[in-house]
């Protein structure tokens, strides 16, 4: 569904020589697959996602969607960011309807589609509220409903739940999995969290420094729904932490382990 073919990405800073963030990345995301991209801060996770979204273009190589080169953003690739960027002057329902109207839906078809996705995300009692009256978790739910309502083939998600408290995050992870299981969309999901990657992913792509952009790929073969305290789940987390700990010269890592005597941070 998404293919990165020998993709390299350079950035330029004030006339200095270019900095290579991704080097010769080859990655296939299969249709219906849930792929998490995990790695230290600054290793290029968002860059990878932005390339798939068509927000930027590779310095070298090609990014393909459904066999065709990505030439820019498109409704078949829905993007969810860390901060829900809703229109503050529109109600919840109107926020979801906005993109549908831009894509040509009108009248009751538009309203029915929007309501359907608000229901799916547990927002049916909040359709007439404005974003300022919603909690962070609810705002993020609206942002997801808004993207899902466009029925994209691929969801590109950049740390969508990282700003939320642990309970809300886990609830939204379950809601996302419920929607994903029902429709089996392809998901490319950037996270710092080992726990999140182990819970969500079919496959975890661990990214490293540019010369080793795709450091390791790990299939997560645990059955769903996953038990966060089960032995197999804990083992998967431990395996992922081991891979992260083996990364050469991390900038910052979030490997979910106590940071005693090291510079490693934990958010879990
Ligand atoms: N438009 C840009 N121009 C110049 N440098 C950039 C640009 N976008 C990203 N970078 C640099 O590229 C590197 C990778 O950034 P990117 O945001 O892809 O990493 P990341 O792994 O997503 O980081 P984080 O986990 O902190 O969000 C960083 O050093 C960043 O400063």
TrEMBL record:
Record has ATP-binding as a keyword? yes
The record, for InterPro entries, names: AAA+_ATPase, ABC_transporter-like_ATP-bd, ABC_transporter-like_CS, ABC_transporter_ATP-bind, P-loop_NTPase
CDD domains with a match to the protein in the record: ABC_NrtD_SsuB_transporters
Alphabetically sorted, this entry's keywords are:
ATP-binding, Nucleotide-binding, Transport
Q: Give the Gene3D superfamilies listed for this entry.
A: P-loop containing nucleotide triphosphate hydrolases
- State which residue ranges cross the membrane: none
Q: Which GO terms describe its molecular function?
A: ATP binding; ATP hydrolysis activity
Provide the ABC transporter domain boundaries: 2-234
Give the signal peptide as a residue range, or say none if absent: none
Superkingdom of the source species: Bacteria
Indicate what this protein is called per its UniProt record. Answer: Nitrate ABC transporter ATP-binding protein
Q: Which organism is it from?
A: Desulfosarcina ovata subsp. ovata
């Amino acid at each position: 569904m998404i293919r990165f073919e020998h993709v390299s990405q350079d950035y330029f800073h004030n006339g200095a020589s270019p900095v290579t963030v991704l080097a010769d990345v080859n990655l296939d995301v299969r249709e219906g697959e849930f792929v998490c991209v995990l790695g230290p801060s600054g290793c290029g996770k968002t860059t990878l996602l932005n390339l798939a979204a068509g927000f930027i273009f590779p310095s070298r190589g090609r990014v393909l969607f459904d066999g065709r080169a990505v030439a820019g953003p498109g409704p078949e690739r829905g993007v969810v960011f860390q901060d829900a960027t809703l229109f503050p002057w529109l109600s919840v329902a109107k926020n979801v309807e906005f993109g549908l109207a831009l894509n040509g839906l009108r009248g009751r078809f538009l309203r029915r589609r929007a309501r359907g996705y608000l229901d799916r995300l547990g927002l049916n009692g909040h359709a007439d509220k404005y974003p300022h009256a919603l909690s962070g978790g609810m705002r993020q739910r609206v942002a997801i409903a808004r993207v899902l309502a466009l029925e994209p083939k691929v969801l590109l998600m950049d740390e969508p739940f990282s700003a939320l408290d642990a309970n809300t995050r886990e609830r939204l992870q379950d809601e996302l999995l419920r929607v994903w299981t029902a429709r089996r969309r392809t998901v490319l999901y950037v996270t710092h969290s080992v726990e999140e990657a182990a819970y969500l992913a079919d496959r975890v792509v661990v990214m490293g420094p540019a010369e080793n952009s795709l450091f390791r790929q790990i299939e997560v073969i645990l059955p769903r729904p996953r038990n966060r305290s089960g032995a197999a789940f804990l083992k998967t987390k431990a395996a992922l932490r081991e891979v992260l700990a083996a990364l050469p010269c991390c900038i910052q890592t979030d490997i979910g382990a106590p940071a005693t005597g090291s510079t490693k941070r934990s958010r879990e």
